[in-house]
């Protein structure tokens, strides 16, 4: 199982001081956070994609390419790449290039995003959101899998014997996660292709997460990719920790109360009771995270949101120390002990290359 962090890259004033970092400072902080993630033994760093204030990660592959040069083992991902408003040709080429630069330490999470106005900014219509996601991904898949693509669709100009460059590293495209909070069509899309499904698992109750993940698992089996238990699932999560749970609640409360997304709404206590947000001791985070498998089954990737709502960099790095030293080692052991035989490991480039080579050998023997 893989553990990591994802960032939304918000530039939010610290409610305890009133100070907001500049864009330059926030971007550099994201790099520091990624490097710290590797230092404490995490597996994955993922960045969102946003094109509006107060967010800065408008160019995920630029950030991830920079991080790739400063890390050795960290898997670099997005959370998410906008399949609806980005050109599939550009996605295919950008992520293949990143694959080569990072020696395969790359995968991609595709989604529709959560900002409606982004559609007209890129010449699209939000009413076409699902259709764009379906058509654009079908083209992206072909651009990675085929050396010369002739294609015609509804939303972009046709292609005639087009070759995306560079070609995917070792002939194996980045592993794809389809990220969604609320759209069953995206779970269906992930299942159809046999790709991974990532449920954000931050704002919604366990009953909703169970429904979305179960839909994906059943449809994954329906399309002949394996049993429902073999489907590749990732979950988000959100935590704030201190050694003493009361200290965690006291320190995090002003950040929660003023957060751009859920601030000035439900109380911290209501939100933690109704969603996976966990504010407390490392042991409480361990117990809450282990409970995710009660409604999502055995899954492959767990990402945590830790740098948001104006939390200063120093505090985020302290959180990562706690995560790496006290939480993740226990979670690795417990999830491994609980996982039944037959549940696949998290996908990696090396494993997927080996599987492709084995498939090719079987083809020649047949």
UniProtKB/TrEMBL annotation:
Residues of the Luciferase-like domain? 1-294
Tell me which InterPro entries the record gives: Bact_Lucif_Oxidored (IPR050766), LLM_FMN-dep_put (IPR023934), Luciferase-like_dom (IPR011251), Luciferase-like_sf (IPR036661)
Among the Pfam families in the record, one is Bac_luciferase
Keyword annotations for this protein, in alphabetical order, are: Monooxygenase, Oxidoreductase
Matching SUPFAM superfamilies: Bacterial luciferase-like
Top-level taxon in the UniProt lineage:
Bacteria
Q: What is this protein called?
A: LLM class flavin-dependent oxidoreductase
* NCBIfam families (alphabetical): LLM_CE1758_fam (TIGR04036)
